[in-house]
Amino acid sequence: MTHVVTEACIQCKYTDCVSVCPVDCFREGPNFLVIDPDTCIDCAVCIPECPVDAIYSDADLPQAQWRFLALNAELAAGLPAITCAAEPLPEADRWAKVADKWQYLERRK
Predict the structure, then answer these.
(1) Between the CA atoms of 74, 86, 42 and 105, what dihedral angle is there, to the nearest 10 degrees?
(2) Does residue 45 fall inside a structural domain?
(3) Closest C-alpha among 21, 28, 30 to residue 2
(4) SS3 letters for 3-36?
(5) Which end of the chain is more exposed for a tag (fewer CB within 10 A), N or C?
(6) Is 56 strand, coil or helix?
(7) Whole-structure pTM over 0.85, yes or no?
């Protein structure tokens, strides 16, 4: 089992989840976070910390977000670890209310 960062994180990149992760499994892209499935210990402490409800257990992942399971694994392999909370993106509060953000995902840092 692992946890998955979904579409709600795109263009927001809140990092409240990063500060509670006991194993540093988050990786940082330009406008999105992902979880490294090889590092995640399935503790679930990150889920309630996300202000936009972007994190799910893979067992609870909504069908519309299934592609993010593979995406997290793919991108985690090439993105740097983020181990400390940082400021969200400048327009995060505005983007938090936007749905269907897949096209805005920037894959490389």
Answers:
(1) -30
(2) yes
(3) 21
(4) EEECHHHCCCCCCHHHHHCCCCCEEECCCCEEEC
(5) N
(6) strand
(7) yes
> Whole-angstrom Cα distance, residue 6 to residue 75?
13
Residues 6+ apart with CB under 8 A from 53: 8
Domain interval for residue 22: 3-86
Question: pLDDT grade, residue 109 (50/70/90)?
Answer: low
Q: Are 33 and 82 in contact (CB under 8 A)?
A: yes
How far is residue 105 from each of residues 20, 29, 36, 44, measured CA to CA in Å? 24, 9, 17, 24
Q: Residue 16 and residue 58: Cα distance in Å, rounded?
A: 20
The total number of structural domains in the chain stands at 1
Residue 39: inside a domain: yes
Residue 64 CB coordination number (10 Å) = 11
Name beta bridge partners: 56.
Answer: 4
> What's the pLDDT tens digit per position in 17-47?
999 999 999 999 999 999 999 999 999 999 9
